[in-house]
Amino acid sequence: MSDFRQRLRNDLEPILGALDPRERISVYHDMPYALFRYDPDEEFELRDEVGKLTTRLTQRGKRVTTISLAACLEDALQQVRPLDDWFEAERSAGATEAIETIGNVLSDLVPLVDLVAARMPPSADPLKDVVLIERTGSLFPVYRTFSLLEQLKGRVLAPTVLLYPGHLDGPAGLRFMGILDAEHNYRPKIF
Question: Which domain of life is it from (predicted)?
Answer without folding.
Answer: Bacteria
